[in-house]
Description:
The protein is built from five helices and no strands. It is mostly helical. Helix 1 runs antiparallel to helix 2, helix 1 (2-23) runs antiparallel to helix 4 and helix 3 (63-92) runs antiparallel to helix 4. The protein is globular, with a radius of gyration of 20 Å.
Amino acid sequence: MGQTCTVVRLTFALVLSAIGTFLATLGSPWFGLAALTLAAVGGKCAATLFWPMAQSGLDLKIAAPGLALVNSIGNLGGFVSPTLFGYLKDTTGSTNGGLYTLSAASVLAVVGVAFVRHTNRGPRAGAGDRAGVTGKAAVR
C-alpha cells in the first residue's frame, strides 16, 4: 500500500505541475504568477516523492550508480530546458511554447511513473546461499 500511495501522490504532484504550467499561458501576468506558483509547488512535491521511489526500486548493488545516472540526466535537463525555452521564445516571440513544452514534460513524467514497477527488496529464498551465508536470510 505504501508504494501505491507514493505513486498516486507523485502522479498528483506532476499533474498539478503540468496544470499550473499550462495555466500560466492564460490570463494576466498576475494570474500567470499564481499559476507558476502552483506549478512550482507541484514540481517541488514531485521531487521529494521521486527520490525515495527511485532508491526503493533499485537493487542495493546498483543503487549508487543508478542514482548517479538519474542525477546526471537531471543535470542535463537543467541545461536543455532553459536552452530550449530560450530557443522557442526567440523563434515564436512568446514564452507560451516553452511553457507548453514544460507542461508536456510533466505529463510525460506521469506516463513514465505509470510504467514503473515496484519490487519488494525483502529477503528472498536462497538469498543467503548466494551471499555465502547459510541459515538465516542474508542481511542487505
